[in-house]
Design a protein that fits this description.
The chain is of the alpha+beta class and about 400 residues long. The chain is about 35% helix and about 15% strand. The protein has 15 helices and 11 strands. A 4-stranded mixed sheet has the order 6-11-10-9. A 3-stranded mixed sheet has the order 1-2-3. It has a two-stranded antiparallel sheet with strand order 4-5. Strand 2 and strand 3 (about 160-165) form a beta hairpin. The two termini are about 35 Å apart.
């Protein structure tokens, strides 16, 4: 089940003008309570999805039976004038306190994301790779490499529903569980099916699939991503049960940048990282001669997504991200976990742009621009001598922009 995926396009002003004949999405604030996170149920019982807005029976109005594309996306609504008017007043802030500057930015972006739906972030063409739970684990991870993706929804054919996600974290946990000695074949990785692995690891993962309906607000999606500390959120149509997209921090920040932040005069964006207090410090780090098995243990134990590689002077020389581990499947070198990290870095894909960094003197807007333009997931924070100070992640930026702790 595939459709081609593209980056979210900039919402054009002409597309925001609503058609007189188009039905409009009812405001979530009008009658719907806070979203309730529930698991998806079999289709014959009516699918329920995490974050799907609930309605009291008395409040439900009669309407035509919706189909997958029967709703009018909120991207057709006219919000350009509201954006320009609100941001123009923000540039005049001069003597206000730092907290009020940040709060003004957060309030505006919360209102902006609350007025948009998850559907607004979907490109015209979307590619979704879905794995059946009876697929062998090894083939599934090779498929991730082939399609250059980091995760895929899992479909249970007998239950006729999505039951979870397969990610690089699963690959790391499999290697840690079955690795015994160098060059010793891991039969479990070669022969196990995805469902077998899920049965064995069910105590270490959530019992339910966390997903969201495409007509839920973008703000709700960001809150779920940040509060649940997850990196991807499947978007599943609650009427048809079809997976339509996967929301990530990267996709959301890219959308906000090209539609608001790039031309916005919000004062908070001109703050330095030091004044804005953004970033993660006292981070874990490794050395070029650190063994792969040790790096994998750090990924699993501390739930970090990347490990800066430093020399004896704490100067950043490289970075080993969790996604780089999948290259071990591509090169069939997952039985050689006793080798140093610098050897594994040689298997990195050609798309790697290098270690991108910033300093505490960089502004919030400069950091966001570098992340979006380079299509990376983080910046390494360094000093003038390129010594490691911390990491600026996508979640750090979204927490600052939307005021989520």
């Amino acid at each position: 089940q595939q459709q081609q995926q593209q980056q979210p396009k900039k919402v054009s002003e002409e597309k925001r003008t609503p058609s007189p004949s188009s039905p409009q999405r009812r405001s979530r604030k009008a009658s719907n309570p806070e979203p309730v996170l529930v698991d998806s149920m079999p289709l014959e019982k009516g699918p329920l999805f995490a974050g799907k807005p609930k309605q009291k029976q008395d409040d439900v109005e009669e309407s035509p039976q919706p189909t997958k594309h029967s709703y009018t996306p909120s991207k057709s609504r006219n919000t350009v004038s509201r954006i320009s008017h609100t941001t123009s007043t923000s540039s005049q802030v001069s003597n206000t306190s730092l907290s009020s500057i940040v709060e003004e930015c957060q309030t505006f972006l919360r209102e902006f994301t609350d007025d948009l739906s998850c559907y607004d972030l979907m490109a015209d063409n979307v590619k979704i790779v879905i794995f059946d739970t009876q697929l062998k684990v090894k083939k599934a991870f090779l498929a991730l490499v082939q399609h250059k993706i980091r995760s895929a929804p899992l479909w249970h054919s007998r239950r006729q529903q999505f039951v979870g996600m397969l990610t690089v974290t699963d690959f790391i946990n499999i290697l840690l569980q079955y690795y015994v000695a160098p060059d010793q074949k891991m039969e479990q990785l070669e022969e196990h099916r995805i469902q077998t692995w899920r049965d064995l690891s069910k105590s270490k993962r959530p019992e339910t699939l966390l997903c969201i309906d495409p007509m839920m607000t973008l703000y709700d999606a960001v809150c779920i991503l940040l509060e649940k500390k997850i990196h991807r959120l499947p978007v599943i149509d609650s009427h048809t049960g079809n997976a339509t997209s996967i929301l990530t921090h990267k996709r959301i920040l890219h959308f906000l940048y090209i539609n608001v932040l790039e031309q916005s005069p919000l004062a908070a964006l001109r703050l330095t990282l030091e004044h804005a207090k953004i970033g993660t410090f006292n981070v874990l780090k490794i050395h070029p001669n650190t063994k792969l098995i040790e790096a994998l243990e750090l990924f699993s134990r501390h739930r970090v997504s990347a490990l800066p590689v430093v020399d004896e002077n704490n100067v950043v020389v490289n970075i080993y991200a969790k996604h780089d581990v999948i290259n071990l499947a591509k090169e069939r070198t997952y039985t050689q976990l006793n080798k140093p990290v610098e050897v594994a870095l040689e298997y990195r894909q050609k798309e790697f742009v290098g270690v991108l960094s910033c300093t505490l003197k960089s502004t919030v807007k400069e950091a966001i621009a570098k992340i979006v333009d380079s299509s990376v997931h983080r910046l390494v924070i360094v000093d003038a001598e390129n010594r490691l100070q911390g990491i600026l992640s996508l979640s750090d930026i979204l927490k600052f922009l939307l005021g989520r702790q």
